[in-house]
Design a protein that fits this description.
2 domains; 5-stranded antiparallel β-sheet; binds flavin-adenine dinucleotide; Uridine Diphospho-n-acetylenolpyruvylglucosamine Reductase, domain 3; 7-stranded antiparallel β-sheet; single chain; Vanillyl-alcohol Oxidase, Chain A, domain 3; about 20% strand; 16 helices
Length: about 475
């Protein structure tokens, strides 16, 4: 290496990056080197040297994605960016913050609060970062109102070591005078890097949007016996255009979020007894604004509830639920329940498909006789639905648990997952997070060609995250 960022080839350091929560599903991959840069210049040096030697580079900001997105599938360099953790600016006028990849949600929340602002949270841990979130994906009940990403402009190190600045930062010599506008010159190059999983470039800075901390923020919940009623109430409320966040959860999801004891349950009857304390379906609605505004919104929302009732969590449950519903919190890591790990089926569809998605999951569980990995009863998935784009479509997430310590619990979960993912692609035409092989075979050729052409432009040697999207023939020829 021609520069000297912190560097290790010791197994003890490398092994920490070789596995994660989905280990038994996605496998283990040992990087050859771990490199921890502290500046964009050091990132450029690493990238130039790696390109010269045809060494793969896998970026890692905080490693909290839980889907194996940072695993070094072809070895090479694991580029851990967490030392680049400065908040370079919190700008009250433009309501933005300029952050490096190692900045975590909790850190930004604290810094922004000092200026009366807040980032729009995800429903994940405070230890993840916003750049890693942008380069993977972001779907949360906040996405409906605030969009699936909150980034205006980026600074990116490309595969030849050059820097690209997007949006209004692109004017030479003026990159810091007005980096606050995304849709500046031609196509949306900022958007190119959303969901790019480190395959197109290393993002070294992002300008992210913030929002004023509201005078009042309120979380209200309703219970429903049936999913159809919950969904139609959610759709009507969403069309009022007043929620900050909104989502439907089944009782299993609620129990995992509200009850630390739930994960210790070891038999099906005890689980049913614990679940009986929760409604079948919970519609959670977040509103905010001035006190009078919030009171008025509450009245409007109540008018749209059909065949559901106001429901209140009590005591500790209430504290955990509010904490979770407001974005992350301490219980979020309990979301995989007692088994320890889970694989998710995720898709985005119109409202009219949501019931079918649920029925299909139940049919699939029954036909595979999929048993709960902990207590052996017929499996019940935790389920969440929330609208995206102000109710045009709905995101669905179902969790299929397995115990990473007991390999025999993995194949049953995978069989159900595989069949449902096929169904999502074949019947619904929509899926997220599909395996790279599936992506390549099911996408239209012109789309694949376009992606590969963009890859060639951004990363001519193909050193960034090979195999993350497609079976890449990388590292590329010298
Ligand atoms: C219990 C739990 C719940 C969660 N809930 C949510 C949720 O509701 N919504 C949600 O969106 N996420 C959720 N997450 C996922 C994750 O916590 C967040 O998305 C987080 O913000 C990711 O940031 P990170 O820094 O850890 O990314 P990483 O895991 O480090 O990286 C994610 C991906 O981006 C790439 N990448 C990372 N940094 C860069 C960079 N600088 N340049 C280019 N590519 C890069 C990586 O190679 C990888 O492919 C959840 C996670 C957990 C554990």
């Amino acid at each position: 290496m021609s520069s000297n960022p912190q560097f290790s080839a010791a197994v003890a350091d490398r092994i920490a990056y070789s596995r994660e929560a989905l280990g038994p599903v996605v496998g283990e991959y040992l990087p050859d080197y771990v490199v921890l840069p502290r500046s964009v210049e050091e990132v450029q040096h690493v990238v130039r040297d790696a390109a010269a030697e045809n060494i793969p580079v896998y970026p890692y900001s905080r490693g909290t994605n839980v889907y194996g997105f940072t695993l070094p599938l072809k070895g090479g360099i694991l580029l851990d960016l967490h030392h680049m953790n400065r908040i370079l600016e919190v700008n009250q006028e433009t309501m933005t913050a300029t952050v490096e990849p190692g900045v975590i949600w909790g850190q930004l929340r604290r810094a922004a609060a000092e200026k009366g602002l807040a980032p729009m949270p995800i429903l994940g841990p405070h230890t993840g970062g916003m750049i890693g979130n942008f380069t993977s994906w972001n779907f949360t009940p906040y996405a409906s109102r605030y969009g699936p990403d909150r980034v205006t402009t980026l600074e990116v190190v490309l595969g030849n070591g050059e820097i690209l600045r997007t949006g209004s930062q692109a004017v030479r010599g003026h990159e810091s005078s007005n980096p606050y506008f995304r849709h500046a010159f031609g196509p949306d190059l900022t958007g190119l890097f959303r969901g790019s999983l480190g395959w197109l470039g290393i993002v070294t800075k992002a300008v992210v949007t913030l929002y004023p901390v509201p005078e009042v923020e309120k979380n209200i919940t309703f219970s429903f016996r049936g999913l159809a009623e919950a969904l139609s109430s959610m759709q009507r409320i969403e069309r009022l255009d007043i929620t900050k966040h909104i989502a439907i959860y089944n009782r299993l999801w609620a129990a995992e979020m509200c009850d630390p004891e739930f994960k210790r349950i070891r038999d099906p009857e005890a689980e049913q007894a614990a679940l009986a304390r929760y409604p079948n379906w919970i519609l959670n609605v977040g509103i905010c604004g001035k006190a009078r505004q919030v009171a008025f919104y509450e009245e409007l929302i109540a008018e749209e509830i059909a065949d559901g009732e106001r429901f209140c969590f009590e005591g500790q449950q209430k504290r955990y639920w509010e904490d979770y519903a407001r974005g992350g919190g301490e219980r979020v890591t309990g979301m995989f329940g007692s088994a320890g790990s889970a694989i998710s089926t995720l898709t985005v569809t119109p409202f009219s498909k949501c019931i079918r998605i649920y029925e299909k999951a139940r049919e699939c569980i029954a036909s595979h006789n999929f048993r709960d990995p902990v207590h052996g009863g017929l499996y019940e998935p935790s389920v969440m639905y929330f609208p995206s784009e102000r109710g045009r479509v709905v995101y669905s997430e179902f969790e299929y648990r397995f115990d990473p310590g007991r390999p025999e619990t993995v194949p049953p979960a995978m069989e159900v997952w595989q069949e449902l993912m096929e169904y999502y692609i074949e019947e619904l035409g929509s899926s997220l997070m599909v395996l790279n092989v599936l992506v390549e075979t099911r996408l239209m050729p012109s789309y694949v060609d376009m992606l590969k052409g963009i890859k060639k432009l951004c990363d001519p040697r193909g050193i960034f995250s090979p195999d993350r999207f497609f079976r890449d023939a990388t590292p590329g020829p010298k």
